[in-house]
Design a protein that fits this description.
It is a single chain. By secondary structure, this protein is mainly alpha-helical. The chain has two domains: 70 residues; 48 residues, no CATH class. It is 84% helix and 0% strand. It is rod-shaped and about 100 Å long. Keywords: Membrane, Transmembrane, Transmembrane helix.
């Protein structure tokens, strides 16, 4: 998911930069048309409507891609599940070690739980 999230973010930023470029170019075209209309000249000018539509579409695409990149999780569901299972296993193992250590403390006459865990590990080897 991280790769997809990064890819969507990069594509969204590229679309956003392209949108800004098109906005500047369209603004320049409209400004030229405005000056020509005010000067009452009849000169052939490009129609900026198609560029305006393209700019609107790119802005919408940029917003969609950046929104998806922000909304996607950083880890996959499998990674989250594995981490939760590992955490539960660690807690269960620590609980078992504490119980075993508590039993060893009573029988050994005051040995610490770390010492008893070490002893039980050595006995298992």
């Amino acid at each position: 998911m991280k790769i997809l999230k990064l890819l969507l973010g990069v594509l969204g930023l590229a679309a956003l930069i392209t949108t800004v470029v098109f906005i500047v170019r369209t603004w320049d075209s409209v400004r030229g048309l405005w000056f020509a209309a005010n000067a009452n000249r009849s000169q052939a000018f490009d129609n900026p409507i198609n560029r305006i539509y393209l700019t609107i579409g790119l802005a919408a695409l940029a917003g969609l891609l950046i929104g998806l990149a922000i909304g996607l999780p950083g880890r996959t569901a499998g990674a989250i599940r594995r981490q939760a299972l590992q955490d539960a296993s660690d807690v269960r193992e620590a609980s078992i070690r504490r119980r075993v250590g508590g039993l060893d403390d009573a029988s050994s006459g005051g040995a610490t739980s770390a010492e008893s865990v070490r002893k039980s590990e050595e006995e298992q080897r």
